Amino acid sequence: MAKKGKIENNKKRMRLAKQHAARRARLKAVARDQSLSMEDRFAAQLKLAEMPRNAAPSRVVNRCEVTGRPRAYYRKLKMSRVALRELGSQGQIPGLVKSSW
After folding, report:
1. Per-residue pLDDT tens over the stretch 24-59
2. CATH no. for residue 96?
3. Whom does it interact with, and what assembly results (predicted)?
4. In whole angstroms, how large is the CA radius of gyration of the chain?
5. Are 7 and 68 in contact (CB under 8 A)?
6. Alpha-carbon span 51 to 72, nearest angstrom
7. How many structural domains is the chain composed of?
8. Nearest 5°: CA angle at 13, between 49 and 31?
């Protein structure tokens, strides 16, 4: 089980990323627009840099919803391989059979 603080920080990052997504998209569009003047593009880049770091979607970490583990994460199932094996062994995942011989 991951530390509660790490899980909560990640939830905070998700919330911030969603909250600032529209503004980030607008500023990035202005910064990339070649038809605008260099000053306008630079100003947009500075405003983008002033935004909170945790508002960037790339800072959100995929974590297992069962254990909070950040590694060996299956996107489709939203859980780690360890949690998948545990739940599969208990028979709680339909269609999954853990092989044994």
Report:
1. 999 999 999 999 999 999 999 999 999 999 999 999
2. 4.10.830.10
3. Part of the 30S ribosomal subunit. Contacts proteins S3 and S10.
4. 20
5. yes
6. 31
7. 2
8. 25
What tokens were used for 84?
A: 């998948």
Report residue 26: phi and psi, to 5°.
Answer: -60, -50
Asked if the model's pLDDT at residue 98 lies above 80, the reply is: no
Q: Where is 79: in which H helix or E strand?
A: strand 79-80
Amino acid present at 46? L
Alpha helices for the chain (secondary structure H): 4-32, 38-50, 81-90
Between vectors from CA 79 to CA 74 and to CA 84, what angle results, nearest 5°?
95
CATH of the domain at 23: 1.10.287.1480
